[in-house]
Amino acid sequence: MTVATQSLDELCINSIRFLAIDAVEKANSGHPGLPMGAAPMAFVLWNRIMRFNPKNPQWINRDRFVLSAGHGCMLQYALLYLTGYDSVTIDDIKQFRQWGSRTPGHPENFETQGVEVTTGPLGQGIANAVGLAMAEAHLAAKFNKPDATLIDHYTYVILGDGCNMEGVSGEACSLGGHLGLGKLIALYDDNHISIDGNTEISFTEDVSKRFEAYGWHVQHVEDGNHDLGGIQKAIEAAKAVTDKPSFIKVTTTIGYGSPNKANTEGVHGAALGKDEIVATRSNLGWSHEPFVVPQDALDKFRKAIDDGAKAEADWNETWAKYQSQYPEAAAEFTAITSGKLAEGWEKVLPTYKPEDKTFATRKHSEITLNAIAPVVPQLVGGSADLAHSNLTLMKVSGNFQKGQYHNRNLRFGVREHGMGAICNGIALHNTGLIPYCATFLVFADYMRAPIRLSALSEAGVIYVMTHDSIALGEDGPTHQPVETIASLRAIPNLLVIRPADGNETSGAYKVAIENRHRPTLLALTRQNVPNLAGSSIEAVAKGAYIADDSEGTPDLLLLATGSEVGLCIDAAKKLREAGTKVRVVSMPCWELFEEQDEAYKESVIPKAVKKRLAVEAASSFGWCRYYGSEGAMISVDRFGVSAPGGLAMEKFGYTVDNVVAKAQDLLN
Amino acid sequence: MTVATQSLDELCINSIRFLAIDAVEKANSGHPGLPMGAAPMAFVLWNRIMRFNPKNPQWINRDRFVLSAGHGCMLQYALLYLTGYDSVTIDDIKQFRQWGSRTPGHPENFETQGVEVTTGPLGQGIANAVGLAMAEAHLAAKFNKPDATLIDHYTYVILGDGCNMEGVSGEACSLGGHLGLGKLIALYDDNHISIDGNTEISFTEDVSKRFEAYGWHVQHVEDGNHDLGGIQKAIEAAKAVTDKPSFIKVTTTIGYGSPNKANTEGVHGAALGKDEIVATRSNLGWSHEPFVVPQDALDKFRKAIDDGAKAEADWNETWAKYQSQYPEAAAEFTAITSGKLAEGWEKVLPTYKPEDKTFATRKHSEITLNAIAPVVPQLVGGSADLAHSNLTLMKVSGNFQKGQYHNRNLRFGVREHGMGAICNGIALHNTGLIPYCATFLVFADYMRAPIRLSALSEAGVIYVMTHDSIALGEDGPTHQPVETIASLRAIPNLLVIRPADGNETSGAYKVAIENRHRPTLLALTRQNVPNLAGSSIEAVAKGAYIADDSEGTPDLLLLATGSEVGLCIDAAKKLREAGTKVRVVSMPCWELFEEQDEAYKESVIPKAVKKRLAVEAASSFGWCRYYGSEGAMISVDRFGVSAPGGLAMEKFGYTVDNVVAKAQDLLN
């Protein structure tokens, strides 16, 4: 085949392929196989189907595209460049995988406009996409009027074998099917190859049948390498099915076009190499210089600019009419999608005095969530089947279900990993929605990957994690967090807050709601805690503060969080009776404390005061940073035990007497 | 219905129910619903089907039973008691969920003989069971002769809606179907209720169809409350299907027998309460005192003792014949199943001198694994589709596949979470098999739950995790571990080893192979590292050691692990040129170091030497414990970046010049 005989479509598709091939070759790193194989379906999607404005990657009603098989990101970068996004120039393509480039090794939403979510870890993208589709359905249900459609976009995914093997994708797709998300369309790059070779080595399930079982509409395009019409028909048929998400299995050849490496794992994740590139160019009739795209192909792709401008202009018209016809709804739409919180919203946060009724902080969380919910309409969320234990139902709304998408309570089922990834999708829909999700703190272990991705991709997801220590009692060591909080504190860009009482819980929610570009995780008790005299909402924002103090320079600092702050205050009373000057520092959030200036930090934890006893019903891992070389800690550095919670706390040393004794050891 | 008119079977089933009801009531904590609803199927399994010896819970050829819905553990404790295990007496039942009891809140294999694996976190048990069935198939294929069947047991699972929603179960069951594990039989307690209510709230997929898609044999027992014959028939039909695992959906009523709470979420996880117990007793015609089981029911259950003794006696006969007919195979069988390693096995561990060719530690791992594999035949394992990156294929064997179960290379597919749980099952098959599994270190996040369970349940799984830092380069921040190692060090009872070179890698494997009751995780480099002069296999067992030293008391300690040890040794050279006395301490394993006596620890890291610079291409979280109040660290406390690995290391400060500079800052 020569260049001359290629159709314009083929030229376009090969443009995608060779940008990927050339970029990976230049970087001597990357994954050319998927871009080469999925180029046809991606071309159909981006050139014939998707509605977006390359010059405005933030246009609110754009179709969302997620490359769940994130290693194939040269596919996406090529399309961003070809369709005219300013975020990816040809120089950016040439800088693929280099220091400081805008084309990193896996798609990063915070790095490259046009990339919606950060993928790479397999299975995350398709689960994010379920969240994107949920966000679309929610806003559409809330705001669309019979004569004015404000929110009306599709969410398209390209995913591969890897994503389909990952459990997180099954969780999210099962929920997506249950919810009947009709605007979610997933294209499965069915190439039978993964890193370890042909998928027959370990992956022989009937994927299409599984998706039917999930309640998806399922199709198969048999020749994904050539049948552009078939791909297009399938997508159109998928769009026509409005009450189910759609799964289109598109059978392709990985590394299509490479005579010797196509259909092998070798083309998955390594540059083709000089010789094979020559052979591929010859095979596909490509004679352009590296990184050069034939003008007519570029022009065809770039019609997206005019199409997108028109689509957005049409939308602006609709929006203008909507504002005049439905001013109240328009105001609410603006309020939510602007990302701004209502003026004075924080006034609803409950505060407590010591004499008030005591609750567990999970109960304070429920009260606070329900105080916030009416004034923060962008708040949506729920639990992984523990709503009655996490106490995370918003009374002001019903359940988000098929045909009930305007509701705000998300019922995730026992699917912690999927839940986290879905919430990342909701957050990164970038329409102001604030997602929260909940489970038992120990099951953060099931969802660590999306928690990390929230932190990395700057998604302000709120993680409400209850049953935070051995004090939860009888459920025993599989359920009792010990090292969980430490493991989460280690994650960069994640705020970990363990509030001590109702005031601190309110303060935690204030921080969480306000932080829209980093996630917050709340660790909450199962059991009641006292209301502290020295706590406040404002104090939480400083991360740590003096909860209780003697006059003058302290002899000893008691450093505590959560349920142990009250314990330390009681112990401090006793120590003072013996003449010791004790300061109790509540440290609900290490990360916020570290962000304070030196003067503040010194005022709370003076360097000169070396006798420090940390008290947290959790692992000591990491605490040396605060209790220092002359300090000590009452900690849990082993797994817990099945027993009533109060007894467990006692046996593990969380008693006034033991705090006093350990403090005295330090002082003597 | 009165007691008199209950069949003996019904008496037995109600005995199970009321032990559960009474134990939960007494503890005022626990989950009565599942035991009440699943009692019929469990009775059929334990009384009519399963082959086991209550007086020898370790009988090697026993059928394995896993309660994946671990919260229903009173079901299992009741059966252990009723069938005559010594590990659960009636007093143990009465101490359910109490301090020091042998009947903790979720089943714990390390606590209660007869419990095979630790469950509670949903989805783990069914995945463990896939591992148990794989172990059975492997040993059967290796050792069974046409005229002598040594290993021949079934693995039965009871799982619920929660397990079926969890992604980990889908991963494992997809693999189980691919492998055609015909001796795995799962009973799905289909009661349509989870904690948050009727499953229609979020879980409406066609579970049976999904399991058909996985390649399982699927059946449905419509009346799991009464149709004992139907349950039995289905299990027998399942056993007759030898080339597929079997899934039997058994429709039941949660909390069966409770007039007011049956079929509601209220009966899932809370004691029935006095009044409802009275009503349930009346409803089911039960008038025995709490914890009293009618003698004829007990007798019927206890026939398991004689049956079990006979089954084991028959097996002993078979074994005796086998030993005389097949002495070599018998010797190998004993060698593996005794849990003892071959005398002198460690002699095969490669050692290196500085002048030897350098490799990445992932490559050293491959060499070592392959040196070990022939002399440690009990070693089985593999990667989650990264065999060619993790370098974890054993050349001495083929792939473990349907009809090829004697092989040792396990091809898990892109299923990290399932892989970890499967390996726990293989380890806890307690037949001496040593499982290893592999992925990229950052994806430990996907499998943290089974890693934790390895540590809790004393399973000596070996986790081979490669690509251990920003040095992996272009794949970027989603793939570059930063906080991963810290998060893993925080887990109790887990050995985390980051070897610096080939000698340390050999040392790491020695530790890992020898530690059969706690897991070991290896963090390995993608990139080459030098062979150190001061490293050795023995040194790793001490956790930390002096890799390089000046004469006399050091002015400064450089504390490093893995790829940074060589860097520190180079920096030490420079510092010595300037007259500084420098000691380089390699700290491959913190946990092992902490187990050494004070004298050793002092000899390596003298308390009096306060100037300490820690150098690890990872988070500083937790390092303060070693570098102390006057120390510092070159660390990565933010997410990484997509760029070539060498450049990334340089930009993040991992250069000789920067180590020297930071050291001088400390000294001045």
Automatic annotation (TrEMBL), chains A, B:
Enzyme class name:
transferase
What are the record keywords, sorted? Calcium, Magnesium, Metal-binding, Thiamine pyrophosphate, Transferase
State the organism of origin.
Merismopedia glauca CCAP 1448/3
Annotated residues that bind substrate are located at H31, H268, R362, S389, H467, D475, H479, R526
Q: How does it assemble?
A: Homodimer.
UniProt cofactor(s): Mg(2+); thiamine diphosphate; Ca(2+); Mn(2+)
Q: EC number(s) in its UniProt entry?
A: 2.2.1.1
Concerning its family, UniProt says: Belongs to the transketolase family.
Binding residues for thiamine diphosphate? H71, G120, P121, L122, G162, N191, H268, F443
Give the residues annotated as active site: E416
What is the official name of this protein in its record? Transketolase
* Pfam families in alphabetical order: Transket_pyr, Transketolase_C_1, Transketolase_N
Reaction it catalyzes:
D-sedoheptulose 7-phosphate + D-glyceraldehyde 3-phosphate = aldehydo-D-ribose 5-phosphate + D-xylulose 5-phosphate
Entry superkingdom: Bacteria
Please give the GO cellular component terms listed in this UniProt entry: cytosol
Cite the position(s) of the site with description Important for catalytic activity: H31, H268
